[in-house]
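Hi R.,

As promised on Friday, here is the backbone we talked about, encoded as structure tokens. Could you run it through your design pipeline when you get a chance and send me back a sequence?
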């Protein structure tokens, strides 16, 4: 049997001494009994504590002994050490528009997806009853000529306030005016598209990627525009906006410089991943973050309708050209590319195309998978990954749950 106490020996560094607990099934008793011509009893569930810097070694040994890892969880999470982190509170029933992230109720018993060791996660510094009034610095179109709809990159000035945030969080915007019932408009949540230092790298700005919501009224056929998204898309430099937050802990980026980060985005779901990629690869960001110099693999699969709708296209392709070994970019352009069946190419078809490789990457304990965008993407992606998991003798839903428990599966859809 594998010696769990030996694997849990102290490591030489603070980072390396972080402990993780593997839940393993199917271990053989030893290599000699495995050679026997008669059936050998295998173990039930075994729990093995492993320091971070020996996780790969432990995984290899477990595999050699015929074991299967059911789940991986940080020991800190199991011990409840994150309980002192501020819990986000759900504000007064915010509604959702295109480009926004979903709000979740406060869950005091649920561990944080990514505990920030250096500092607590900032949450709800500004609330709806006392918002921060930010000024618009710039409002730039992201959809190129010939594209569909309106989508803007809007940068706000945070000078004079105390709004701090991390990559993967959201802020609320309260549009002016009243709703159809004569009550003040409720806030809408939008995923932040900039790093904690802001686009100007001076800690004084926050940026959003917002698409104007537009749809046909089901009864009248009249074109309806989203209240808040239209307001934001039409803002001019110097305009004032009521901002709340930040909120969110589900989509935070791990501190591990060697991690594998798989990002699955549709449309404005690119927002948090732009923040991730800037933090990983932009020269200015790297100089500001000597403690975080990304050396792993970032893989973005981006679903969009047409080539002119590829948001941040120039930025993405420049990063890919500069870091070809660390950043992989895959497009699914639905109205221009075909899937193997001859229909439109959606993000789930790209995931299915690369499912074997993604599955292999997901077996690594420091691979995180993120999904952000339209909720409709989830079922197709689950189907694609379920097929490859089944091929490898694993139940996808069970494996997905183990990734969630380990804080390695992150979803924010709307």
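Update: got your reply. Pasting your designed sequence below so it's all in one thread:
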């Amino acid at each position: 049997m594998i010696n769990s106490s030996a694997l849990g020996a102290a490591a030489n560094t603070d980072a390396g001494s972080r402990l993780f607990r593997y839940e393993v099934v199917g271990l053989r008793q030893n290599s000699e009994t495995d050679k026997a011509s008669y059936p050998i009893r295998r173990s039930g569930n075994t729990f093995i504590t492993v320091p971070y810097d020996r996780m790969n070694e432990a995984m290899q040994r477990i595999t050699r002994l015929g074991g299967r890892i059911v789940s991986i969880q940080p020991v800190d999470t199991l011990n409840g050490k994150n309980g002192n982190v501020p819990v986000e509170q759900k504000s007064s029933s915010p509604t959702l528009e295109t480009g926004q992230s979903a709000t979740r109720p406060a869950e005091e018993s649920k561990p944080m997806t990514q505990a920030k060791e250096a500092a607590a996660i900032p949450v709800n510094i500004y609330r709806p009853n006392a918002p921060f009034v930010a000024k618009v610095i710039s409002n730039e179109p992201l959809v190129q000529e010939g594209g569909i709809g309106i989508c803007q990159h809007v940068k706000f000035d945070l000078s004079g306030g105390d709004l701090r945030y991390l990559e993967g969080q959201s802020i609320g915007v309260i549009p002016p005016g009243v709703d159809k019932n004569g009550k003040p408009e409720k806030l809408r949540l939008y995923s932040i598209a900039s790093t904690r230092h802001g686009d100007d790298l001076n800690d004084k700005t926050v940026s959003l990627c917002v698409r104007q919501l537009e749809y046909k009224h089901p009864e009248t056929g009249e074109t309806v525009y989203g209240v808040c998204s239209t307001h934001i898309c039409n803002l001019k430099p110097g305009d004032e906006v009521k901002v709340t937050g930040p909120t969110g802990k589900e989509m935070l980026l791990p501190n591990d410089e060697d991690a594998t980060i798989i990002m699955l985005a549709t449309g404005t779901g690119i927002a948090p991943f732009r923040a991730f990629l800037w933090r990983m690869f932009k020269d200015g960001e790297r100089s500001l973050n000597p403690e975080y110099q990304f050396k792993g693999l970032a893989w973005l699969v981006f679903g969009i309708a047409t080539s002119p709708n590829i948001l941040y296209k120039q930025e993405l392709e420049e990063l890919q050209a500069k870091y070809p070994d660390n950043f992989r970019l895959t497009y699914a352009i639905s109205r221009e590319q075909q899937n193997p069946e001859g229909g439109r190419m959606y993000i789930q078809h790209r995931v299915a195309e690369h499912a074997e490789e993604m599955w292999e990457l997901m077996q690594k304990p420091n691979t995180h998978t993120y999904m952000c965008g339209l909720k409709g993407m989830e079922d197709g992606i689950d189907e694609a990954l379920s097929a490859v998991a089944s091929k490898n003798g694993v139940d996808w839903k069970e494996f997905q749950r183990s990734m969630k428990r380990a804080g390695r599966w992150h979803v924010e859809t709307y």
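One thing I noticed while checking it: The radius of gyration is 23 Å.

Thanks again,
M.
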